[in-house]
Amino acid sequence: MRIPFTRDFRHLAELKESDPNRYHDTLKALVDLEPDLLSDRQKILASPEVFEDSITGERKTNVEDIARSMAGMLVSPSTGQPLGYRNSETSRNILKGKYKAEIGIPNPAASGLGAPYMRVKNVDRWAGDAAAAAFVDPQSIDLVNAPTKLKRAAAMGKAASTGDGRAMLAANKRYEFTDEEVDQFLKLTTINGAGSASSVKTSGLDEGRKLEVIDPVTLKKVIDLDADSQKAFYRERSRNLIGDWLKSGGRALNDLDDELSIPGNAYQMEHNSPFSQSNALALAETPDNRVGFYERHVNSEKGDIETSQYYRMQRLAYLANQAGIPISGLKKGTSTEDSLNLMINTANPAVIYGDRRRKDAQDIYYPERTKVNNALVQQALSV
Tens digits of per-residue pLDDT, 9-24? Predict the structure, then answer.
């Protein structure tokens, strides 16, 4: 049965007091029937709007305010007045004096194809973006006079070029949060119905990895630790991941814009040095190697490639695009330089081989392409 839609919201205030559960259900039904009830701000939440005081521009001091803003507020399109939160308090939570902010709802699924994420496969969609240019060519940015967005992009690009996890975390950082504030946020929030800590505690660790992951403190497999030690490992992991994410302003790793990006399927935890290479050395789960949450298309494309190598692949894709050479994807070689050569020579071959099934087949040579390709690879390598 469809609920008749009305723009007269006066009854909601009374309903919130008399029957909070029915108020919650009615509010959700209104959104389903009239998506425009959500303002543009709620459709795509921006990090500064969630984390910063609108008057001072400073980070909100009350963690609960951040959680509530992140959960998204319904706004009356006629008056602009807030109607309540999408996940408004249920009577059970009111009786317990609790408020759980469901932060997994507000933002739609990420496109993963535009300038904020810079997937090599889609270089034609981001090569013309100024922030993307700053990311792949940080030396071109005037760090004194450039806009803040471009300076941040250049800093993130420079950090990614080194492959240093600590430098990447620092470049992505926007705010300070104490451990106590992180713990408070974890208690206040849920992601798609589950506690935030539970939602991220095994992010980046599939069933196979959970059997193999090594605790960098004890140097033992986590699965071989006693129950309390296993809980402590995952508790620290959740706090570390959410803490760094909050410090970044709730953004995806190396996101060049300010879009709020909620950990989950759309934004996936990334090991800076690939798990397959670093776990045997007990380095996979060090805090500096858990660098954040990549947009899922980028995470899938990067796979087990080292961050500094993937950065140079992005850089080559950009430089080739500027030269009119379309890079369509990654090629993996025995080294970074070999991979780049495979990519550029596939996109801009110096030799077109004739059909070997024909006796008169002839190869066509383009020696000038060799010079262009070599120059682009060297330029991509030098950061």
Answer: 566 667 766 766 666 5
The C-alpha angle with vertex 256 and arms to 250 and 262, in degrees rounded to 5, equals: 25
Distance in angstroms (rounded) separating the CA atoms of residues 310 and 271: 13
Q: Is the pLDDT reported for residue 47 higher than 90?
A: no
Task: Report the candidate in 325, 326, 330 with the shortest Cα–Cα distance to residue 303.
Answer: 330
d(CA 311, CA 308) in angstroms, rounded, equals: 5
Half-sphere exposure of 211 (CA within 13 A, CB side): 2
What is the dihedral angle through the alpha carbons of 371, 376, 381, 383, rounded to the nearest 10 degrees?
Answer: 130
Count, residues in the chain: 383
Averaged pLDDT for residues 83-90 = 47
Contacts of 308 (CB under 8 A, 6+ apart): 160, 161, 162, 163, 336
Paired with 293 in beta bridges are 269
Q: DSSP class of residue 250?
A: S
Three-class DSSP category at 245: helix
* 261 band by pLDDT with thresholds 50, 70 and 90: confident
pTM for the model stands at 0.81
Count CB atoms within 10 A of the CB of residue 375.
13
Alpha helices in the chain (DSSP H): 10-18, 20-33, 40-43, 47-51, 63-71, 91-96, 123-126, 130-136, 148-162, 165-172, 179-188, 196-200, 207-212, 227-247, 275-278, 296-302, 307-322, 336-347, 367-381
Domain boundaries, given as residue ranges, for the chain: 10-102, 120-304, 319-381
b/e 29-54 (16+ beta carbons within 10 angstroms → b): ebbeeeeebbeeebeebbbeebbbee
Q: Do β-strands 82-85 and 73-75 pair in parallel, antiparallel, or remain unpaired? A: antiparallel
Look up residue 50 and give its amino acid: V
Helix orientation angle between 148-162 and 307-322, rounded to the nearest 10 degrees: 120
pLDDT tens-digit map of 266-277: 889 999 999 999
Q: Looking at the predicted structure, is the pLDDT value of residue 154 above 70?
A: yes
